[in-house]
Amino acid sequence: MSAVLVYIHWRDACTEEAADPHTPISADPLVDLYEWGYLIAETEDAVSLSMEWIPANPKNVTEPGGKPGRFRLHIPVVNIIERRNFDVNALLTAKPPRTKRKK
């Protein structure tokens, strides 16, 4: 399996300090979050990302295989505003565009 890098923009609840009785109540108690991670699982309800990817062959990271690292995040699908998937092998093997040399 080729690793898939995912960008997700999502909204979630946040906490606010309200020990002072005069603290105004927020009109929008949600926060916008932006995450990058490796797609490790997906269901109808959630997308799971790993912040690290351990390649099967560290000497050739484009080889298929590998496993997720230690840090994982599970994002509810209903909270996702935008999502983009990127094939890691395509990113690693893509050649930069050629530029003209200045004379």
Give a brief rundown of this model.
By secondary structure, this protein is mainly beta.
Keywords:
single chain; 103 residues; mainly beta; 5-stranded antiparallel beta sheet; two-stranded antiparallel ribbon; 1 helix; 44% strand
Strands, helices and their partners?
Blueprint (H helix, E strand, L loop, with lengths): L3 E10 L16 E13 L3 E5 L2 E2 L12 E2 L3 E5 L3 E8 H6 L10
Antiparallel strand pairs: 1-2, 1-7, 2-3, 3-6, 4-5
Describe this structure in words.
Helices cover 6% and strands 44% of the residues. The chain has one domain (4-18, 28-87). The strands form 2 sheets. A 5-stranded antiparallel sheet has the order 6-3-2-1-7. Strands 4-5 form a two-stranded antiparallel ribbon. It has 103 residues and is mostly beta strands. The relative contact order is 0.29. The chain has 1 helix and 7 strands, in the order βββββββα. The radius of gyration is 19 Å and the shape is extended. The protein has one helix spanning 88-93; strands at residues 4-13, 30-42, 46-50, 53-54, 67-68, 72-76, 80-87.
- Low-confidence stretches at least 5 residues in length (pLDDT < 50)? none
Distance between the termini: 46 Å
Biggest sheet features? 5 strands, antiparallel
Mean pLDDT: 83
Number of domains: 1
Question: So what's the overall shape?
Answer: extended
Radius of gyration: 19 Å
User: Which sequence of SSEs, written as H and E, runs from N to C?
Assistant: EEEEEEEH
